[in-house]
Amino acid sequence: MQNTRSSKVLFLAQFSILLAIEAIFCFTPLGSIPITPAIVMTLAMIPVILTAILLGTKAGAAMGFFGGLFSFLIWTFTPPNPLFAFIFTPFYSLGEMQGNIWSLVICFVPRIMVGVVAGAVYHGMARMRGGSETPPLCYLLSGVLGSMTNTVLVLGGTYLFFGESYAQAMNVAYSVLLGILGLTLVTNGLLEALLSAVAAAFVGRPVKMALDKRTAA
Questions:
Q1: 212 — phi, psi (to 5°)?
Q2: Smallest Cα–Cα separation from 160: which of 115, 200, 208, 109?
Q3: In this structure, how many other beta carbons lie within 10 angstroms of the beta carbon of residue 60?
Q4: Which H or E run includes 188?
Q5: Could you tell me the pTM of the whole model?
Q6: What letter would DSSP give residue 58?
Q7: Going by C-beta distance under 8 Å and a sequence separation of 6 or more, which residues neighbour residue 62?
Q8: How many Cβ atoms sit within 10 Å of the Cβ of residue 104?
Q9: Within the chain, where are the H helices?
Q10: Contacts from 11-17 at CB under 8 Å and sequence distance 24+?
C-alpha cells in the first residue's frame, strides 16, 4: 500500500515538473527558436514527447491535452498573430473569418495525438526488445514521429477546414495554399522533428534509464 502511494506521488511530481516546462515553453519566448524571419521552431511538443516516453502513452496524451489548452488560451486572449487566431479558437473572429468547432479540433487533437504516437512508438519498440536496453533509435523515432504528427495534423486541418479563409488571411490565392503549407512542412516541420528527436535521445534516454534503475532498485 505504501509503495503504491509512493509511486503515485512520484508520478504526480514527475508529471508536474514536465507540465511546468510545457507551460514555460507555451507562455514565454523560451519556447520559440527563431531560425529566419519566416521560420520559427517551437519547443512545445518536446515535453509532450518526453512525458510519453518517461511516464507512458496515457500521460503523454494528457500532457498533449494541456499543451492544447495552453495554446487555446494564448490564441483566445493574447494571439501572437490575430490574423490566424480563428484557426485555433472559436472565440476569435476577424472580419468574415470566424473560428468554429473545428478550431478546437485543430488546437487539441494534434497535440493529444503527439503523446499517443510518441508513446506508442517508443513503448511498442521497447516491448519488442524484451528486457534488453532500449536503443537510441527508439527515442529518435518517437521524437520524429511525435513531432511530425502535430505538424501534419495542424497543417492538414487548417487546409481542410479553413483553407479559403487561411489563404485570404495570408493574402495569397487558394490555389497556391497547398504548396505554401507543404513548404512549411519541410522547413518548420522537419526542423522541429529533428530537435524533438535530439531531445528524446539526449534528454529522454538518460532520464528514462535513471528512472528504470531507481524502479529496479
A1: -65, -40
A2: 109
A3: 32
A4: none
A5: 0.94
A6: H
A7: 15, 51, 115
A8: 16
A9: 2-27, 45-55, 57-77, 101-128, 136-170, 177-184, 190-199, 205-216
A10: 11/55, 11/59, 14/54, 14/55, 15/51, 15/55, 15/59, 15/62, 15/63
Lowest mean pLDDT among 32-36, 73-77, 89-93, 203-207: 32-36
* High-pLDDT (> 70) share of the chain, %: 94
Residue type, 167: A
Phi, psi dihedral angles at 180 (to 5 degrees): -65, -45
Q: Return d(Cα 67, Cα 29) in angstroms, integer.
A: 15
In the chain, the N- to C-terminal Cα span, in Å, equals 18
Residue 120 amino acid letter:
A
Number of domains in the chain: 1
Question: What is the per-residue pLDDT for 212?
Answer: 83
Q: How far apart are CA 59 and CA 176, in angstroms?
A: 39
C-alpha cell at 39: 521560420
The tens digit of pLDDT for each residue in 142-177 reads: 999 999 999 999 999 999 999 999 999 999 999 999
Residue 202 has pLDDT above 90, yes or no: yes
Residue 123: CATH number of its domain: 1.10.1760.20
Give the domain extent around 7.
2-216
Query: In which residue are the cell numbers 509503495 written?
Result: 3
Cell output for 7: 509511486
Q: Which residues pair with 98 in a beta bridge?
A: 93
AA letter at 28: T
